[in-house]
Amino acid sequence: MTKVKIINGIYRNQPVRDVAFTLVKGLQMGARGSFVTVDSEGYFGPEFDVVRIKVDGIEDVEFVGGDAVTAQPSVKAVAVQETDEAVMSRIGERFDILDQMTKAAIAGDVRAMIVVGPPGVGKSYGVEKQLEQSGLFDKLAGRRIKYEIIKGAMTPIGLYCTLYKNSDPCNVLVFDDCDSVFQDDLSLNILKAALDSGKKRRIYWNSDSSMLTREGVPNNFDFKGACIFITNLQFQNLKSKKLQDHLEALQSRCHFLDLTLNTQRDKFLRIKQIFRKGDLFQDYDFSPEQGEEILDYMDANKDRLRELSLRMALKIADLTKISATNWKALAVSTCMKNS
Hints:
The protein has 11 helices and 14 strands. By secondary structure, the protein is α/β, with parallel strands linked by helices. Helix 4 runs parallel beside helix 5 (185-194), helix 5 (185-194) runs parallel beside helix 7 and helix 10 (310-322) crosses helix 11. Residues 66-79 have low confidence and may be disordered. The chain starts with a strand and ends in a 5-residue tail after the last helix. A hairpin with a 2-residue loop joins strand 4 and strand 5 (33-39). It has helices at 84-107, 123-134, 136-140, 156-165, 185-194, 210-215, 241-252, 264-277, 288-300, 310-322, 327-334; strands at 3-6, 9-11, 14-16, 19-30, 33-39, 50-55, 61-64, 112-116, 147-151, 172-176, 202-204, 220-222, 226-231, 255-258.
């Protein structure tokens, strides 16, 4: 079992400092801040079993070996099964937080945010929707929109130039699955400078470059905008110790939001949540019964589908347009894993 030491935390207004517990669930973000779920092992009294200890961030949690745990009566952690409604409420809360944090970035109150979650659950959609709403009047007035969305690969000098072009206050730069910036130490150094916690965030490019000359980009400037990183990347899985150190420094400069869609059930209930809101099949002339049938099919086959995502739901919806009577056979051939 994984053991963690809570370096500095709070449970029910009681300080928790340098106490080791058995980890039940890692760092999560809730409406009132971040927390870690642990087996209390009788520490807070016999009536408390699995508890959530509030912490400021990952720096307040340390993974330790079993020897670090003081001898206490062992209480087996009981996993409480959430109802479907509770899961959808939890997921909805996370996406509400994503909307709030995006608005804060647009307003200039948040410098940076990292959003982590599996592909195809609507991470990008929510961020882009908030940005489009904020830029509507600029677009109507013919003014330059104060945000840019970057997808795909990016070189360090390309990153430098892009930051310069979006360096004004209240500009928001979104890196959507642009994971190359997380895997290059020069790019990470540039981002650390851009998102530094100091009042002035000056970035330098201290080498000659024809690209900078051609683009009219100076070799140093102050970045006053905000950055949002949307990624499927699990940072802890990167093997390079050098990059890990850079990423930890970057994370310390960013708000970190894990959407906690960790299981097939979570992903399916996220799809169901979007369906209930009426946003999933809004471009299809479906009856409610047709939409329900597609969701029931996905639920029954969620472990066989190539991926469980909003995109997969739309793929299956497309198949119903090809054949209203034979779409399930088409789905088996095009959407299922090879057995």
